[in-house]
Records
---
Amino acid sequence: MNNAGVATAFEPNAAPTSALIQSRGLSKTYATGNGDVIALKNLNFEVNDGEFVSVVGQSGCGKSTLLKVLAGLLPYTSGSVTLNGHPLRGPTPESAVVFQSPVLLPWRTVMENVLLPIELRKLAMASYRDRAAELLNMVGLGDFAQRYPFELSGGMQQRAAIVRALVQDPRLLLMDEPFGALDAMTREQMNLELMRIWSQSRKTIIFITHSIAEAIFLSDRVIAMTSRPGTIADVLTIGLPRPRLLSVINTDRFGRYAAKLRSLLDAQGGMF
Amino acid sequence: MVHTLDDRSPVNATLTRDTFVRTLRRYPQFTISPAILIGLIAVWWAAAHVLRMPAYIVPPPEDVLRATVRGLSYSPWDKASYWYHAGITVWEAVIGFTLGSAAGAVIGLALSHWPLLGRSWYPYIVGFQSLPKVALAPLMVVWFGFGLGGKVFITAIITFFPVLVNMMAGYQSVEPERLELARSCNASEMHLLTKIIIPSCLPFLFAGLGVASVLSILGAVVGEFVGASAGLGMLLMQYNQALEIAPMFAIILLLAGIGFLMNYLVSLAERRYCFWAQRANLARGP
């Protein structure tokens, strides 16, 4: 995490080299009491190494299902997904999930929460302690390592959850509306924070959201999904230069991306 | 409120009345609660002395106090001493509580964790729970005799259910996201139970233990009613047959105190091992 690394990461759309995730004809069907429900239908997309990709869509369009499939938490029905060239079969240390709520265990301190994945994977805790402390410092929680989650604000809890996802140095970060429960001001702060973490750690991020503005602000590319069954309407490449400041939201170019995305999502007839 | 500056103005009196009312509102447990106790004892005293109710129906409070002091003044190894009998009752209750609640917690966890087990046993659990467990007490004398075993068994059965039911409710209420988080970290079945599920159930488990701790005294006393050679329940029956009502009151009050103490010990343990639950609730807020 040296300064040179930061500088290159801030280059516009820095060199996506190879596909980290490749999805071909991915479908997911749930069996319910009154027949099958198609949650995802024939999804084809790639996510490149180091890329920030958002998935936008209305509630119930299957975006959370997609994230759980990519995390290996849900089996898919047909098609294929590869992570780093290998077919996806269950959760792997190469990816980590950040949920909508922080899901911190209240009986553990922040540090113990951050080290939970290490403990569950039966790795040597001692060798990750320094890294955990460093990451907590990076998100401004250095002084809170020995505190309990209920002593932290909502934004701080979610930052701790992000650190927990980063502690094992995964290549892929899967984020399921991680800032959806935060107030608007905190949410903007967290978006800037996430940009900084992404540029410093150079992870690949798949970010689920229903906020068009958030998706455009953060992403290299935005996947627009439509509902019932969940399909990809289009994939939009966001050419806004980086680093992005919050003021980019007020530019015409940003507005055109937003209008384009809204029309893609509205084409399905939903208002939101 | 407007105060006129008259030198005989009751400003000071008003101020003290204000602070008095404020103290009442803020600390009712230290002001109003003791006042209620004094009131109750006064009514009791009046029933005995003013209404002149006979001592074999309502013994005067001072007789009960005298019986209590006498009962507690003997050495704990003297069989006339309340200490001796209380010790035996508490011992029965504690062993029964430990066995019953441990079984309730473990079986509750197993029935929840393996749904097939839970679903197949469910009708029998509901059936057994609707049975008044106290009705089993006479059977215990037949099976276990007049000794410790029967009392422990009846106490264990009575304390088993509240713990079992709470453990199962706790398991159901584990946030699914906690389980997903653990699965996304490739947690083993053992880790899932010990590091996620069991700690998540603790607030429910302690609620069950609180109920069970009070019920454990009930179990021991009922067990002693049907046949025992020692214990507060046995003593209560003896005084009852001799129509000595003042010592009966003393023993009943003693049992209430023991139940309160058991419950208090459980809440101390809860504060120690489940410290995060109450504060997490407070922090979540509206």
---
Amino acid sequence: MSDDIATPSTAAVDLVTEPALDSPRKILRTRRKRALAAFWRQYKSNRMGLVGLGVVIAWVLIAIFAPLLANKDQLSESYAADQNQPQMMEPSWLLSDADKAELASQQSGISEPNRTDFEAITTWQYPMGTDDTGRSVWSLVIFGARISLLIGLMATFMTIVIGATVGIAAGYFGGSTDAILSRIIETFLILPWIMLAVVLASIMGRSLFSIMFIIAITGWASTSQLVRAQSLSVKARPYVERARALGASDWHIITRHLLPNLFPIIFANTILIVAVSVAAEALLAFIGLGDPNSVSWGSILDGAQSSGATLLGAWWYVLTPGVCLTTLILGFSMCGFAIEEIVNPRLRKR
Amino acid sequence: MGSRRYLLRKVAQAFLSLFIVVILNFVLMQLAPGDPIQRFVRNDKLTQADQERLREEFGLDKSVPGQFVAYMQNTAQGNFGLSFISGQPVRDVILAHLWPTVLLVGLATLLSTILGVGIGIITAWRRGSKTDMTLSGMSMAFYSMPDFWLGMMLLIVFASWLRWFPVGGYMSPDSDLTGFQHILDVARHLFLPCLTLTLGYLAEYALIMRSSLMDVMGEDFITVSRAKGLKDKQVRNRHAVPNALLPTVTIVILYFGYVLAGAIGVEYVFSYPGLGSLTAQAINTQDFPLQQGLLLMFAIIIIIAVFFTNILYSYLDPRVREA
């Protein structure tokens, strides 16, 4: 069904069924709408895809409404210190009354056990415990969702732009352009991306933008390879030849014939790249290449590692951001695989 | 005849890739902020004499083309400069950390490939069954977990709580174990990091093998072999699996760079003294020469590995040579 998006055969059918005086733009719009509806019909029947979509939407909502779900002050280490918050404390709902009393007395500096009601920790005050500086892990992961999602999406956008441009240039123009670009693509495919990322981070410094850029510059090659192969096959189709015979420019052919046909495959790839980018950001932040001024799930895990949370058995500090990462990556992967099944007919009839 | 041309083309490609990496590395060196001489001078572990020698060796006082010539000469001789760590040559520092990583990554790649292919065969052959659903679901979950996080969780459970395994390192410190005892000690330290990487990549390979085998199962020759009256097992082992294996092998090779990336996070978690820990150290100490040396060294290793597997592959599947 994906072929509906822009193949001329359906255009011919539409021209017959639509009123004859419609502008080409309107015809195109109707056709796109129909293709989209057909796509959604197929997507709806894929259970894996629906679950993935649900997870992704849930995370996007959490990221948008983060201030309603958690306290932003908790992101600051100095705030936690000012409030004298307990460090490396297990989730508050696991604490017994005696534990709470002890913590309350520590916090207030009063050691009399009968002053338990004074500043006592409530059951849901620290739902996922605290980190080594006393910040609430719950608040960290809720606000961390914003950074992880933002970097994942922006890095993907940059990856796709670079990957599609290089892939189209190689596939469409062919000849020596293709020969040179293909060698570069091949080299980047096998290059140890993490090492390149390390060197680039040294050069560019550590900011949100540099992380996005690094993920894109190390990850575009697989998209290019895919786009190049598809461009080659589209270029060989008769209607492209026809357009060229009618005197269409390269620009016209690329934007009007090539891109609409590449779109489905690029789209499926994009969703999978988001999953890869989120994972890449987490790894980079974890080994110390993240932006020091913002909290992402990877940087929370970096904090857990360097404060020895694993050796102390502080499971809440490690488990929470990891579960967030896994569910988000899983959600995007499931969507991507589902779309791939629809877009790539070879995978469909299974 | 065809195979000879194929071989030549692959050799040319490998050299071209190498050339691109070397150029890229030089460009990165030029892009680095600050004066290159200053970068070396900032390192207090190097003596004045060392600095002078470096300046001489790398032509740092010359123009960009002059530096390029010096850089190419040094790279060809395997001279990547001096590391900030105790002022040793980068090459020696890297070689000293090579073995633990080769052991870890090699073993994990081997195990995850074998197990992954096995799971892929089971799930593809019984697709839609309960076994398929369970195994494929688990593969998806492991595929989505960051390796280093999986390592941290395993560390908490098996080293911190249960104390079945040591919390990190290559072997017990200050131990003078020899022979079998020594091997056992190394294996105990290797177990958790290796398990982490194996689980992480097994899932990847299982999913690839599954879809590759399902592709093959739709081919005509499978129908023919069934029509011939071959048993299900024969169809699977003689006809379907060998053909599905080839694309999987290609992916395993291409994934080598990703396994290395995963290994870096995992080594850091388990303070396993390989190239991963060295990379983390190079990041923390901003040891630029070491970072570049690691990039170059890894790229060379991978290019050579890819070259040899390509050759091997062309013998396994003659169709490749004709393409």
